[in-house]
Hints:
- The complex is a heterodimer of chains A (307) and B (245).
- By secondary structure, chain A is of the alpha+beta class.
- Chain A folds into 2 domains: 25-60 and 169-303, no CATH class; 66-138, no CATH class.
- Chain A is 67% helix and 8% strand.
- Chain A has a 4-stranded antiparallel β-sheet with strand order 2-3-1-4.
- The radius of gyration of chain A is 33 Å and the shape is elongated.
- Chain B has 245 residues and is of the alpha/beta class.
- Helix content of chain B is 31%, strand content 22%.
- Chain B is built from 8 helices and 10 strands.
- In chain B, β9 and β10 (222-224) form a beta hairpin.
- In chain B, α3 crosses α4 (118-131) and α3 runs parallel beside α5 (147-159).
- The radius of gyration of chain B is 18 Å and the shape is globular.
- The chains are: A alpha+beta (307), B alpha/beta (245).
Amino acid sequence: xxxxxxxxxxxxxxxxxxxxxxxQARLTGPMPWVIAIMVALTVMAAAAGLALDNLADxxxxxxxxxxxxxxxxxxxxxxxxxxxxxxxxxxxREDIAEVRRVPDAELxxxxxPWLGEAAGAGDEAIPIPALIDxxxxxxxxxxxxxxxxxxxxxSVPSARIDAQAGWLAxxxxxxxxxxxxxxxxxxxxxxxxxxxxxxxxxxxxxxNRDTIEIVHxxxxxxxxxxxxxERSIAVDAVIGGAVGLLxxxxxxxxxxxxxxxxxxxxxxxxxxxxxxxxxxxxxxLAAVAIAMLTARLTVLGALRRML
Amino acid sequence: xxxxxxxxxxxxxxxLRYGTDREVLSDISFTLHPGSFYFLTGASGxxxxxxxRLLYLAQRPSxxxxxxxxxxxxxxxxxALPEYRRRLGTVFQDFRLVSHLSAFDNVALPLRVSGVPxxxxxxxxxxxxxxxxxxxxxxxxxxxxxxGEQQRVAIARAVIARxxxxxxxxxxxxxxxxxxxxxxxxxxxxxxLGTTVVxxxxxxxxxxxxxxxxxxxxxxxxxxxxxxxxxxxxxxAARSAEERA
Lengths: 307, 245
């Protein structure tokens, strides 16, 4: 056999990416965009779940030891007297960290949108209970609440006590439901992404059947062939993941600014911290891993039916 | 039996049927000795391609035993088959080139599958393409090559990795007589290096070009072996490569 100088040309590595052994029109078509959309939606769902978690945590911390004492007394003088007794009694207790009488002006401002300015003024003013915000040292338990109620009612017969955590419980339940909804969405989107990759891999397998058979007959292993598809889908997933992260994170930042502009204390507690952003940033990586694993399992499963 | 003492390939009472049809191959028994040259002949539809498919491990038989390189390949798990396929070289009747790869990359495929580094591939493939007269077509894709050129690329791909057994299905069917002779000389050169060669052909003139060859004739799915040279288990009198040498 003649000895010849090497021919110089671009080399196609076995298992190389585009332009390699696989004809990849099917994979390079809609796949990156499908993954981008899935990642963007997953980022938004995950960010919403994390924001709700932060919001619930902040609100819980704020109201865990909180309770409201109302003095419901029709006569203004008597109401004022009982309120002062209640403040004095509460202030002297060692298990209470903070007592704050809500000023009448603040109360008037609270009811103003519903009842108007005249509601809290003049002889025909609607009787409004005196409100006292109280913060326990430690959480409010039923036993502590009963003990405080007994102590208070002995001196302030018109007093009513409500734990803030109690009347906010339905809100927390709703937040927890929304969090589970976000988790469900993330799981569904991951499953949908995997299904899309499965379909793409099946389709690519079909269009490359002849090539795969040749490689098989030349001694190619299932792993070698599966790696071709894995690499191909990984490229698509990296591109799609990056685009999806940009889109999703952009939407989250925009929404975050709009919510922050509302100026509501409870909503402001729903921002994302560094750890949350790191978790959100890991979503495209998880998408790449899921896509590669799905492609590998799909291809290996299909190859097993060949000799 | 261990190793390849009894032959590099052994078929014993092999039968093959597709689905529930009648057997396309029946009671096939033969031994291929290392370094021997075999022609497989027979009329169209006699079962040559089916027999070759069993030889290059594209098919399992319906019955019987096949040993290759001292191993029973019938009971071998499919994950172990690639290792055996890499020791075979195959020229398919329909070439089976990868249409979107260049001639160079098609020829390089067996080396890449075997994990040969690119630095080692470049010269080997260039030499091989030069030898089959296609160095100037290295970048051409199969659809742009003539039938004869495609066949030469297919042959180059089959022999590039120096297989222990070369199986060729009508390898000279699409080339002119000069090129056919040249390709046959390539097969003989490989044979002299120790490769066992099996060439399926209906060209009787080709048989005369390799005087030391053994002829396997298939007729309606049965192998005729009047000399007993192909018998399995082999008779002591059967010619071996060593004896011929």
